[in-house]
Amino acid sequence: MTGVVDELLSRLRDEDGVLVRVESTQGSAPREAGTWMAVWADGLTATIGGGQLEFQATDEARAWLTGGPAIDGVRRYPLGPSLGQCCGGVVFLSYRRISASDARVLQTELLAHLEPVALFGGGHVGAALARLLSTLPFTVRWIDSRDGVFPDALPAQIETEYSEPVQQAVAQLAPGSRVLIMSFSHAEDLDIVIACLRRLRERDDLPYIGLIGSKTKWATFRHRLEARGFTAAEMDRVTCPIGVPGIGGKEPEVIAVAVAAQLLQSLPSA
């Protein structure tokens, strides 16, 4: 598994680049503030979108890389006829020269703008989801009670955690985490759901809790949760089954696409 942050860090070991970032936008624009790309002498990592906008930004960054004047401040780009585009909005870009000495700061900085996901379960669906989420605007805390279930090499966006009992990790999740529950056993799933609902009572800072399983599984869980004193309103905070409706297939990769789409719908900008 590799992601765009990994690619940036890898290339920085051997060459300098220019980090181009969308600082703000006005009106219609191809990408939102915070979007970035790294420009190298012979390639790009990631994209700021926009066709001619990206071509022009790339040319300006490469001119700096090859000895041209430094680019200071923020540059304004109207997306109109002068740029060969018809979006009608305005994009403001910043340019920053980067080298190997910036790697650690860049990793922290770029990951800090991503949305946190807590993924419970290192099985086939969990692995497919981790791979997919590492290409999307998420950081993943991947948790399992079994030691040795995670791949050795993972993208910078993914952090693994061994937790026994597994539900103990819920208390330490980052505020605003979206939680996906798909452990190897229904008993563990139930324990994690209970821990999440208790955290909602205390802090109400988990915007999405998704549980893999059928309607029958959720009906059984609701009965057990009700017996533990949880209200219908509290249980309604759990999404089960998970994934956007209308996507057939039970292959791990298909399930991962449906679940990732639902997570994207839950983002503030959706």
Structure description:
The chain has 270 residues and is of the alpha/beta class. The chain contains eight helices and eleven strands. It has a six-stranded parallel sheet, sandwiched between helices. Helix 4 packs across helix 8. It is elongated, with a radius of gyration of 22 Å.
Query: N-to-C terminal Cα separation, in Å?
Result: 27 Å
For this structure, the CATH topology of the largest domain is: Rossmann fold
Question: Roughly how many Å is the radius of gyration?
Answer: 22 Å
Provide the residue-averaged pLDDT: 93
- CATH class category name of the largest domain: Alpha Beta
Quick recap of the structure?
The protein has 8 helices and 11 strands.
What's the layout of helices and strands?
Layout: H1 4-12, E1 17-26, E2 36-40, E3 43-46, H2 52-65, E4 74-78, E5 90-98, H3 103-112, E6 115-120, H4 124-133, E7 138-144, E8 158-162, E9 178-181, H5 186-202, E10 208-211, H6 215-227, H7 232-235, E11 238-239, H8 252-265
Parallel strand pairs: 6-7, 6-9, 7-8, 9-10, 10-11
Antiparallel strand pairs: 1-2, 1-5, 2-3, 4-5
Helix pairs in contact: 4-8
